[in-house]
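The data layer described in this paper is built around a simple, fixed record for each protein. We quote a single record here, exactly as it is kept in our systems:
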Amino acid sequence: MATLRVIAGTARGRRLKMVPGDTTRPIMDRVKEALFNIIGTSIYDARFLDLFAGTGSVAIEALSRGAAHALALDLSREAVQTIQDNLRVTRLEARAEVRRGDAFAFLASTPSAFDFIYIAPPQYQGLWKRALMSVDDRPEWLAKDGLVIVQIDPVELEEVALRHLVQSDERKYGSTLLLFFEHSHRVERES
């Protein structure tokens, strides 16, 4: 089994625990590295929301690279414990919040703007589409110049009818597809 680690920043090289069992699918290092190369310096002082957080490795990478705050959310008790353990190991717990809960109930609550929203749910259940549409229904979750990032298997890709968000980029890394969405007014302004 591959080891999970922090790639860059203040916690670089720290090994992270995996969630027991096979309910999570951690992001591969090369995909995580590519993702944060795309995000670049925008991560500095950003607010990062990791829905379906699993091990918390994406939120932890964001914090290690300079995000001001990360909220990691997962329904699994084991995942929440793993995220808390991984935050302790990386010494990043002061800038993180870990919540156990349902992503859709969370997205139905009062919005608080995040610069980045990362959606990487269990595969083949259409949860990515439902989560993306939930953010689109309440666009206040995404900061004005923010980015929603969806991680799926390419076979899951399908059209999504959105009113407030538009897809701005798509990157494929083997059996992982990253989709990037922004506020539609931001894309219109730049074109």
Summary: The helical segments are 29-39, 57-64, 77-90, 103-107, 127-137, 184-190.
